Amino acid sequence: MNIVFYIAAAVSIVSTIMVISRHNPVHALLYLIVSLLSLSLIFFLLGAPFAAILEVIIYAGAIMVLFIFVIMLLNLGEQTAAQERAWLKPKVWIGPSVLCFILLAELVFMMVVQSQPASEPKVVAPKEVAQSLFTAYTIGAELAAMLLMAGVVGAAHIGQHKKLVIHRFLKERAAYEA
Amino acid sequence: MKPEIAMDAPLLLAVILFVLGMIGVVIRKNVIFMLLSVEIMLNAASLAFIVAGSKWGQPDGQVMFLFILAMAAAEVSIGLALILQIYHQHKSLNIDKLKEMNG
Question: Where are the alpha helices (DSSP H) in chain A?
Fold first, then answer.
């Protein structure tokens, strides 16, 4: 069982590296989906089957489809890939990457110093999660509902297209009609 | 047979994924890739919550995962709507060109 975890972890790390280094947005998106699926397997191994299912359905299913829609709407293909190739020079990314890896080394060092003993993960069934969500965290669930509502309304408002008026007479007429 | 995984390993994975997402936010110039990297960071954070929840056998970790999921969905919908508007106004997704606010 341990080896399954390490394989899934390696897959997720490699595919995440591919996400941040690809030039074509669609390739990056597909690698991100692979990373999410392997993370879902890790959730399952950690005894969180409900979270694993939600990771597949909502993250890999719904949120990534939103990304794909936007990439298709904006028609980001070869042209964007060429642009990215021009932007992503080693001179640009080496400095921040080295700094971030220093940070990573510090975090790993801190965690290795005070390491926890191995313990078998306890399975938390969806029933317990639901009971906790709708008793202790009721206010949080309602706030999340309000957040989603605000997200829907905000996206509908931001995303609406205003008609481009070219002539000023047409503009006056558009204002009159509105 | 129950799986036996040291608690450190998943937490280390969460840290590595978080730092990878941070690198993605810093080095990319395309807004879509930055949004994807933010998603990676959110995922790493929720992995940390799940690890903590499974360590103590409490449902709170998964509840927090649900909240992060809802937050990520709202954030992505708003962010993608903003990206569409930015692309229609500037014909580019390069953040260096979006200097209207002089930040």
Answer: 2-21, 25-45, 49-54, 64-74, 78-87, 90-113, 126-135, 138-159, 168-177
CATH code of the domain in which B56 resides: 1.10.287.3510
Number of domains present in the structure of chain B: 1
Domains in chain A: boundaries: 2-136, 137-178
- Sequence-separated (6 or more) residues with CB below 8 Å from residue B63: A129, A132, A133, A137, A140
Q: Give chain A's residues under pLDDT 50.
A: none
Segment B21-46 mean pLDDT: 91
Domain of residue B49: give its range: 8-91
Count Cβ–Cβ pairs < 8 Å, chain A vs chain B. Answer: 243
Quick check: B101 contacting A, CB < 8 Å?
no
Residue A118, amino acid: A
Q: What is the pTM of this model?
A: 0.86
pLDDT at B1: 40
Nearest CA-CA partner of B45 in B29, B30, B67: B67
Selected residues 14-53 of chain B with any CB under 8 Å from a CB in chain A: 15-17, 19-24, 26-30, 32-33, 35-37, 39-40, 43, 46-47, 50-51, 53
Asked if residue B37 belongs to a domain, the reply is: yes
- The verdict on residue B48 lying in a domain is yes
Chain B residue nearest residue A6, CA to CA: B9
Q: What is the pLDDT of residue B4?
A: 56
Q: B68: pLDDT confidence band, cut at 50, 70 and 90?
A: very high
- Does residue B98 form part of some domain? no
Any domain includes B76: yes
Pick B54's closest partner by Cβ from A13, A46, A128.
A46
Task: Select A2-136's CATH number: 1.20.120.1200, 3.40.309.10, 1.25.40.10, 1.10.10.10.
Answer: 1.20.120.1200
Average pLDDT of chain A is: 85
Chain A residue numbers touching B21 (CB-CB < 8 A)? 16, 20
